[in-house]
Amino acid sequence: MDTLRYPIGQFITLQEPTNEQRNQFIESIAGMPAKLRQAVEGLVLEQLNTPYRPGGWTLQQVVHHLADAKMNAYIRFKRGLTEEHPVAGTFREELWAQLNDYKDTPVETSILLIEALHSRFVTLLLKLLPTDFKRVVTSPTYGDMTLDTAVQRYSWHAYHHIAQITSLREHMGW
Fold first, then answer.
1. What domains, with CATH codes, occur in the chain?
2. Which residues belong to any copy of the DinB-like domain (predicted)?
């Protein structure tokens, strides 16, 4: 079950990443919308309404969750750049996934949202100084974290969910 829930493994923080490693995380963030679009390409509503694992979210819920999570993470990141040690907001993702917009909104809407958001986020990230990534936010879930860790988590989180989609596609032969 754990490989279904975490097909790319659990998140592991890279301590003191180099500028090159940091740029790789930024590149992965830049490429994420296209990877997500590719992951759901050609799926019909019945397939999108299939859970990626027993008891898990449907593929449609995963896509909408990614949009919500990325919006929240972007705001947390910007607060980390403009406030001293802010407490990052959180959201009840399991409850958000039950709201009507997750069921009634086409996944394309969330993909377009992610494309626009990532365009802005990557523009922001590419101009930051290494010292900017040392700024700290406090996550109610993870405690204090540098923006270096936040950008890694942001990248991992996206590919974690994309892998849930692609793993189900492989398993189902879609």
1. 33-141+165-174 (1.20.120.450)
2. 32-165
